[in-house]
Each structure stands twice: as C-alpha cells, then as structure tokens.
Amino acid sequence: MCQRITFVLMVAALAVVPRLLAALVPAAAMLGCLMVMALLGRTRTVSWRAMSLMFSVGVPWAVVVALLTRVVAGWAGVKVSDDGAGIALAAFIEEAGKLAPLVVAAMVAPGRVRRFAAVDWVLLGFALGAGFTVAEDGARRLIPPGPLAQAIGEKLLSYSLNPWTSGEFTMSSGGWTTQILDHTDASGPMIPGHQVWTMTLAAAIALGIALWRTRRVAARLVAWAPVPAVLTLAVSDHAAYNASARSWASAAWAGQGHDGFPEWMLDLWQALGQGRSAVPISACLLVLCLLVDARRRLRAGELGITGPEVPRPPCAGGSGRPIPGARSSRGSDGAGSLLLQ
C-alpha cells in the first residue's frame, strides 16, 4: 500500500513540478556509481545500508555547508561570490566540511569506526560527496534556463556509471565565445564531481590511520601528512576552478590570476594539470587502501587473529533462559554502531 502511494505521489510530482525529471538525473546516476564503488570495494565491512545512509545525509548536509560558508565569509568580511580570497575561503570550508558527518559517526560509534577497513572510509567518503553532487546539480537543474541557454542549448553536467568521471565539468580553453558556441571543446580546466575529492580525502584519513597502527616512529610521523596534503590539493583545485569559471576567460585567468587570490594555489593548480590530476590521484589511493586491507587480512590469518564473539547473558540454573534484567555485551557504540553495520 505504501509503495503504491509513493508511486502515485512521485508521478504527481513529475507532472506538477517543472524540470523535476531533469533534477532527478544526478540522484539516479550517483546511486548507480555508489553501487559500482560497492562492487570495487571488495574488502569493505560496511553494509549497503550504511553507504546509502551516508549518501542520504550528504544531500541536506550540502545545504548546511553552503549556509555555513556564507556565515564564515561574513565574519571574515568577504563574499563567497568575490574573486580572490572569497573563492579560496569558500573552497576551504566546503572541502573540509564535507566529511563532518564521518567525524560525527566516529564520535557516536567509536568502536565500530575503529574496526573500519581502509576501503570503508573511501566508500563512505564517496557516498557523502555523491550527496553533495546530487544537491548542487539537482538544485541547478530545477532553475529554468535563460533565453540564451534556451536558444543555444543548456550545457549540463554529464553522468555515467563511471564513479570518477560522472558529474565532472570541463571548460574550453578559449574565451567566452568559444565556451558558448563550441560545446565539443573540452581542452580547458576541469573539475570532477564532489565525490572524487571527498573520497580521496577519506582515503587519506584511512592511510594515515594505517600508518599510525604500524607503531613505528617513522611511520607515525608520516601518518599526519596524507590528510593535509590531500586537503591542500582539493582546496586549490576547487578554488582555482571556481575562479577560472567566473572569469569567463579561463586561458587568460590561468596566466594572470585574480587580485587577492593566493598565488601558490594557482601555481599548484597549474602544476597538476588544471584539475586533471584528481582522478588518477583518487584511483591510486583507492588501490592503496585495498592493498592495506588485503595485507591486514593476510596478517590476521597468519597470526590467528579473529574477532571476539559477543558473550551471551548468564542463564538461570542452566535452564538456557537468560536471567531477567541481564544484559549482553554489545560494545559501547549503541545505535550508532548499528547504523554503520
């Protein structure tokens, strides 16, 4: 009965709300990409329910991060729409804030998070970033196109079942006339979907944890490096692309920059191919996480390490019935652990 009501409401919404069908394209594509990632993450321990939950959380969380960005920019005396420092500030807050739900999960269910495989971080990070892509592009598609876009056609983001290229956007290397008239020119700066850098940052967290667990002094010193390094790459990639997109002349901006925009971000962005290094970096870190998990499982088999069983409640008089009021030991994570199973 509930499924029939839901189906009827969905059909009614598609008939009443203009462009709703186009706005649902990112959600369907990102859900398919999440399934592909679940198949690639052969060493994962998190369930599909946990991944889909993070995907669902990522959509409203994108709105929260957008509002928080405006508040912080107001405190700093800049606008997120300004060229220069405002763009850099917005990129930093957004890239760092995307993974906040994972931090909350670590506080709510620390025991379960400690048992995460390295690839679990990647999958949950991908799910959060996919939610951001759905929220951002879905809202953009709901807005009716202007007269110019109606005349020459909208330039929407392309989607596929490739988790790394779905939702990416590439600019032309020419000026604004080339960007409008030549939709086939994709030789300029590009930006992947939010899910790429988010899962890359989550992979950096997983690798840092793996290095720390080796208990070697040198490894623990290096363990702090992956997260700030990847965060720096993500922020510079995001900020430089936004600045180039707003300039409407990406080739000229890449050589001149904007007043107030950090020059080191521009140099780093150019050195890494104007956004084209995000996908190979992300893929390499995913492979490293899979190798870390494989080695961990291999060592567990060699050492005979198994997970502890959950003790049963004490029984009364050997009858097999638990004593009233007795509680079994399920760890200290409670409901938060159940959500991440």
From TrEMBL:
It comes from the Bacteria. Residues 325-341 have a biased composition (Low complexity). PROSITE patterns: PROKAR_LIPOPROTEIN. Keywords: Membrane, Transmembrane, Transmembrane helix. The chain crosses the membrane at residues 20-41, 53-73, 85-109, 116-135, 196-214. Residues 309-341 are annotated as: Disordered. This is PrsW family intramembrane metalloprotease. The lineage of its organism: Bacteria, Bacillati, Actinomycetota, Actinomycetes, Actinomycetales.
